[in-house]
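We modelled each protein-ligand pair independently. The example shown here corresponds to the zinc ion entry; the chain sequence is given first, followed by the ligand as SMILES.
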Amino acid sequence: MKRLVLFVLVLLLASHKGGAQEAKPLPAADERYKADILLVVAHPDDEGAATPYLARAIYDEHKRVAVVFTTRGGSGGNDYSREHGPALADIREQEARHACAALGITNVWFLDGKDTASQNVLNSLANWGHGANLEALVRIVRLTRPDVILSWLPGIFIGENHGDHQASGVLATEAFDLAGDPVAFPAQVAGASKRLEPYLENLTPWQAKKIYFFSDASDEKQFAGKGPAYSIREISPSQKKPYWRMALEAAKPHLTQFPAEIHRLSNLSDEQLEKMMSDPTHAWWSEPMTLIFGKATVPTQPWEAIFPEVEPRQKAPAVSVEQSSEPGDVLDSKEPLHLELGDPWHFYRAFRHADKLTNLPAARVPEIAVKAGSIVGIPLVIARKPEAAREILVKVSAPSGWKILSGEGKFLLPDEEFAYLRVELQSPEIPEKELKGRQPDSVAVTGMAGDKTIGQAELRVLLRSSALSQ
Ligand SMILES: [Zn+2]
């Protein structure tokens, strides 16, 4: 009996102790790296495309900003000191860190992409190692848990049209889509099984709410109304100076990129700077700075403010934003034979559909700027149904002065679903002074099967005194 009482007592004590036990907190995410905005850009100094807006977000809206550079920018020239190549990339990484620090941004990451000088997004993705860098970017999204992602516009326009810029926008879009999906890179979201687990990362899936873009196109006006606009001349209530001023200060560490310009600006008085920035031909940023809405996982309007809860209301555009109605892909064609512009244009058509970015601006007629006298390639893709003819005729029309080098004539398609072909033309050499104010030339390729047209690929080509290689 005594033993039974003791046993009951022990049981009671044990259960009592269990009830009073404090819940042990499980480790949470590292708050020091939480961001409201994650900026994803290609090169050291690219952050400058967004700094007037970021200055507002950081100083007056108290937003936390983190930045990812997808390359360390080692392939340009150095006009400041003698280092080149990998050593220049080491310097550029520091310049970018100092530039971000000038705005109070300390959470800065660099991916493994190689600075690739061309206008072709596919060159950049190939040279970077698309998969490995996407995995790394998805990790950073899960680590920083941003509400908003900002990046370069994935698309082809007359302008700098840097393939690396576009590729950073492609990666940012893909990471936006994948970071919230527990099946994508699952080892990142798997729990560590022991304290010194070296492989599994214990992150959690994260879905950002919105993604916006900015562009390196020459004509920024074409994007008006495609997203919220922010004044760069407005005076920051907390800093008592215009937003462009903070952005300009943050650009000064980039001495290996534009030393003469930084030196010149450093010697200007406040009044002279003010004058320069209010002159549209010399200002570094256009007023206002327009962002391009990508997509959202929360109800919003493209033109609405990025953070509507803290920002003054944005105005709806006077003209309604055009809805894209382009067919998704060459695969969608009902015709037995179909020819159209190939990669990278073909890639973007499929990409915009696959990633639900069909309202993203795209040039009405495909366009590009190249150096006058350079060779212009027109990539073509031909889709063929199994029963269709295999012989096609490719005809090229170009303005006088252009010379067709290859890709014209009769071709026998392989007995496959797709065939790729490239037309090459020599563009005319034109003296620099005659290039000013020039309009784009139109080059067109027509595909025929017997007497039937199977498709046309038109490209507007603006000849310039300098441009990145196509
Ligand atoms: Zn760049």
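DSSP finds eleven helices and 17 strands in the chain.
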